[in-house]
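During the reporting period the student researcher (J.K.) took over the structure-prediction task from the postdoctoral fellow and processed the backlog of single-chain submissions. One of the processed entries is reproduced below for the supervisory committee.
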Amino acid sequence: MKPFSIAAALLFTAAPAALFAQTVEAPAHITAVTLFPWGAQVTRTVEISGDGAQEVIVPGLPDGTRIETLRVKGEGVKVGAVTLIDAREPATEPLTSPALEAARAEVERLELALAEKEDAVAAIRLRAEAARERAAFLRGASTQNVAPDQLAALVQTVGAGILAANQEAQAAEVEAKAAERALKPDREALEKARKALAALENPNTDSDALLATVEGAGQLEITTFTDAASWTPVYDLRLDRTSGTLAVDRYVSIAQNSGEDWAGVDLTLSTARPSERMDPGHIWPERLEFGPPDAPVGGLPKMLTRGMVQADAYAPAPVAETAAMEMQGMTVTYRYGTAVDIRDGVEALRLKLDQLELPVELLAEAVPMLDETAYLVAEVSNDTGQILLPGSATLFLDGAVVGMTDLGLTAAGDTLRQGFGAIDGLRLKRVVVDKTEGDRGVISKSNERREQVRIEVENLTAEAWPVRVIDRVPYSEQEDLTIDYSATPAVSAENYDDGRGLLEWRFDLAPGKTQTVALDTTIGWPAGQVLR
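J.K. obtained the following structure tokens:
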């Protein structure tokens, strides 16, 4: 690059404000919002006019905007240095916006209209005042030079004149009061227009501003991040047993307290969670030592000291907070179809998202150790390719509301398991038929405990049910503690749902039938020991 070109480039990127035209103010308009489960990315656009380099100040950014989350890019505009201002703003060229001009014109129009009507009311009151003056004049008329035969006629004439004048004054007062009351809407409209004008002439200064060096004409796009916003999934789960499907109606509940209204914005909902950590957890090496059980304790143990050193050596570097759309897992976004108004301070704006329809497996799940009835359980594989975030859900069974619950996170490909209430006609009974405990053996004695349990599931409904019964036997991690069991019928699966010792039976139960399960357990442990 030639020396002159280098100088020109440096002049634009680092020149003081004095080398540019006087700083001008350009308002920004919020056009789009991307909501995260916690936080939001807000996009503003600014129209830039002019051919050369200039400094533009964009007021009205939320108070406390962080520079590390602020991004500015131009379309048809070259963007140089960007400064975030949270205190005194530089002087700008006088700028009268079309909105301000319109507000001033409206106030002037309403003032003139009100003045004309107030003048009309004043003219009515003048008529009333003139009538009262005429009556007063007639009352003060002298009768000294009036002949006696004319006095009666004069008195009658004066009395009629006073009556007419008072009636005219009274009618004028009634008319004036009615006209005065009719001015109320005009005065209210003028007051409202004056407040709107005052808001434009004296905007809220409790905000930040952006100062940017730009060149050319086009549009600036400014994005900021706020953590004072969120969206939460809300679900309606509609289980239809006839079709064997679960319809998941998805809604979103939106809240924001950013300090500004978002009017007519393009809304995008994202499952990304930029406010959460981006890195997996870190575990440290575990070191074990053995020694005499009564070794004295002096100072810090070596293991603790070494652990502290290792923790310091392996401590991860701090992660910078940014507004980047990152998350753990797959990000799903939803763009709302129409423009949305989200006012500051909104606690819960609810919007309909979509509906998912999934095939479902229905079971009557029975836990006789805890319950007296079985419960209807729906198991659904989330094959939508989308993550279902945690949220509250209203449960519908065959069109009727049966309850509410809180759904946990269900990843794509995971199984959603949800209960839909008790099946009162499936009765459960669990009885301990026999339980014995004692010593056994002749030379080397040991302890033994035996337990016989009978489980009954009775179907008093008019339909057949696929039933899953869950019960348990103890488990041991000691070699000398032996646990054996036998079950009739045989169990369908051991360690149900990864629970050690949990047993599962699966069978179909016809109307009016009873299924019995026999479970015998034998536990043995060395003599002299106590079973815990």
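The committee noted the following: Residues 1-20, 297-329 have pLDDT under 50 and may be disordered.
J.K. will present the remaining backlog at the next meeting.
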